[in-house]
Amino acid sequence: MSHNTFGHLFRVTTWGESHGPAIGCVVDGCPPLIPLSEADLQPWLDRRKPGGSRFVTQRRESDTARILSGVFDDGPESGMGPVTTGAPIAIQIDNEDARSKDYGDIARAFRPGHADYTYQAKYGVRDHRGGGRSSARETALRVAAGAVARKVLGEAVRIRAGVVQLGPHRIAPEAVDFDAVYDNALFAASAEVVPAWEAYLDGVRKAGSSIGAVVALEVTGVPAGWGAPVYGKLDADLAAAMMSINAVKGVEIGVGFGAAELSGEANADAMRLGEDGRPVFLSNHAGGVLGGISTGQPLTARVAFKPTSSILTPGQTITRDGTEIEVSTRGRHDPCVALRGVPVVEAMAACVLADAMLRHRAQVG
Amino acid sequence: MSHNTFGHLFRVTTWGESHGPAIGCVVDGCPPLIPLSEADLQPWLDRRKPGGSRFVTQRRESDTARILSGVFDDGPESGMGPVTTGAPIAIQIDNEDARSKDYGDIARAFRPGHADYTYQAKYGVRDHRGGGRSSARETALRVAAGAVARKVLGEAVRIRAGVVQLGPHRIAPEAVDFDAVYDNALFAASAEVVPAWEAYLDGVRKAGSSIGAVVALEVTGVPAGWGAPVYGKLDADLAAAMMSINAVKGVEIGVGFGAAELSGEANADAMRLGEDGRPVFLSNHAGGVLGGISTGQPLTARVAFKPTSSILTPGQTITRDGTEIEVSTRGRHDPCVALRGVPVVEAMAACVLADAMLRHRAQVG
Amino acid sequence: MSHNTFGHLFRVTTWGESHGPAIGCVVDGCPPLIPLSEADLQPWLDRRKPGGSRFVTQRRESDTARILSGVFDDGPESGMGPVTTGAPIAIQIDNEDARSKDYGDIARAFRPGHADYTYQAKYGVRDHRGGGRSSARETALRVAAGAVARKVLGEAVRIRAGVVQLGPHRIAPEAVDFDAVYDNALFAASAEVVPAWEAYLDGVRKAGSSIGAVVALEVTGVPAGWGAPVYGKLDADLAAAMMSINAVKGVEIGVGFGAAELSGEANADAMRLGEDGRPVFLSNHAGGVLGGISTGQPLTARVAFKPTSSILTPGQTITRDGTEIEVSTRGRHDPCVALRGVPVVEAMAACVLADAMLRHRAQVG
Amino acid sequence: MSHNTFGHLFRVTTWGESHGPAIGCVVDGCPPLIPLSEADLQPWLDRRKPGGSRFVTQRRESDTARILSGVFDDGPESGMGPVTTGAPIAIQIDNEDARSKDYGDIARAFRPGHADYTYQAKYGVRDHRGGGRSSARETALRVAAGAVARKVLGEAVRIRAGVVQLGPHRIAPEAVDFDAVYDNALFAASAEVVPAWEAYLDGVRKAGSSIGAVVALEVTGVPAGWGAPVYGKLDADLAAAMMSINAVKGVEIGVGFGAAELSGEANADAMRLGEDGRPVFLSNHAGGVLGGISTGQPLTARVAFKPTSSILTPGQTITRDGTEIEVSTRGRHDPCVALRGVPVVEAMAACVLADAMLRHRAQVG
Question: C123 vs B8: CB contact, 8 Å cut-off?
Answer without folding.
Answer: no
